# Entry
Amino acid sequence: MKIRKLNATDSTNSYLKELAKKLTLQNFTTVVTKNQTSGRGQVDNEWVSENGKNLLFSTFTIINDLKISQQKYLNFAVSLAVFNTLKNFKIPKLSIKWPNDIMSADKKICGILIENVLKNQTIYSSVIGIGLNVNQTIFSDDLPNATSLKKILKKELDLDILLDSVLKNLKETISLLNQQKYTILENNYLHVLYKKNIPTLFKNNNRDVLFMGIIKSISKDGKLQILLENETLQEFGIKEISFKTL
# Structure
């Protein structure tokens, strides 16, 4: 495993994807930076981070025989790797907010962006981008639900130690994925899914209406399954709904 350390780059995912076009990369080749000038989150959202304070990295991963239709299991594996790392650091009230935000109580600690290279009907490799809020303590007013490990634990953490821990856990969960231990990954993910089986207020972003529902599971194609008040089970994709506070 090779680790490239950069002082700054526009996006570690973009950097690693370009590197993969030029070179044959070893499995788990990783690029980590102190500063991202154009960090990206899910669905083209911007990822903003204070220079030198947080863990910002991307990892190139070779995937074995995972069908495109099964890509939710890759998401489970990556999310669980970060979750397991933070669990070892005794972060309280941890959960995974669908699809792959890592939460402490109702505050977001980490975001994940997975970009795949496809070959025929399978995922051949992935660039896994992880942004973990570590030593930053002041966040924009536009991010009222953001927090960091320092704010939670009241101490600074070593970014290199955290990186090593995440990569170790990622190797373990990707190994489960490549061994096709899909049931284990899914059960572990659902066990720590944010707001699962709790009546929750949502906003349907397509129709701009609020509704109550209960998260029950993840569909075969990775959508969130919510039990509505009329006892019907409805599926929602990314950005179709959002969580609302009472």
